[in-house]
Write a structure and sequence with these properties.
Blueprint: H1 8-18, H2 22-30, E1 51-54, E2 57-59, H3 62-72, E3 79-83, H4 89-98, E4 103-107, H5 111-120, E5 127-130, E6 144-149, H6 158-161, E7 164-174, E8 180-188, E9 191-201
Parallel strand pairs: 3-4, 3-6, 4-5, 6-7
Antiparallel strand pairs: 1-2, 7-8, 8-9
Helix pairs in contact: 1-2, 2-4
Length: 209
């Protein structure tokens, strides 16, 4: 029995039908997801599902990525941090949304993934990736307009919250191993206010060592 995988146009149509913004759809259109996948999975690049990228990590489901990007409320020219940047796919999407005058920083603890994503993204001038422990964030580049955590945490690391600008937004999957809520937190002075929680997601756990 032949199985036909979704193509890029079908995925873009699906995301459009959900109601994601033009900016987000344009970013998904501009970035080739297959470039961030192992050779044997490239034919599945536009399936709306998470896929393994090695080292026990995954590239997230496109719908979930689009949702998190939507909740981040990205603007042209912002400075963004992604913790657990993995293959670099989301960094590339963010780069397209905030455009060339914005800056995107990725922190990835797994050395192999850091190196591979740096190679994949070498033509993106506004992206920098660091091989570091994610819970420390990137104090040397802080504060950030937006912070995205792309792995499941039980609690949001305080050091990351402290690296948000005033009125900055952090988005993260938070909860136990088998199901998380995507939480949206805004900094308001010295207070961190949870703006929304969207249930029903499963991310790989945050790697600390």
């Amino acid at each position: 029995m032949l199985y036909f995988f979704m193509d890029k146009q079908q995925l873009l149509e699906r995301l459009k039908n959900v109601g994601f913004s033009e900016k987000i759809i344009e970013a998904f259109s501009a970035v080739s997801r297959e470039n961030f996948l192992p050779e044997e999975l490239k034919n599945q690049a536009y399936e709306d599902t998470a896929l393994p990228i090695g080292n026990g990590q995954t590239i997230s489901q496109p719908y979930t990525v689009a949702l998190m990007l939507s909740e981040l409320d990205l603007k042209n020219g912002q400075k963004i941090l992604e913790v657990g940047s993995g293959s670099g796919y989301v960094l590339a999407l963010i780069s397209k949304i905030i455009e060339k005058n914005g800056k995107v920083f990725g922190v990835e603890i797994i050395k192999k993934l850091t190196k591979k994503s740096k190679d994949t993204l070498e033509n993106y001038e506004n992206i920098k990736i660091y091989n570091k422990k994610g819970s420390n964030g990137l104090p040397e580049e802080a504060p950030f307009d937006r912070i995205l955590i792309s792995a499941a945490v039980r609690e949001i690391p305080k050091k990351l919250l402290d690296q948000l600008k005033d009125n900055g937004i952090l988005v993260a999957p938070k909860g136990p191993v088998f199901e998380q809520n995507i939480v949206v937190i805004q900094r308001q002075g010295n207070k961190f206010v949870t703006k929304s929680e969207i249930p029903g997601f499963v991310f790989v756990p945050f790697v600390e060592e």
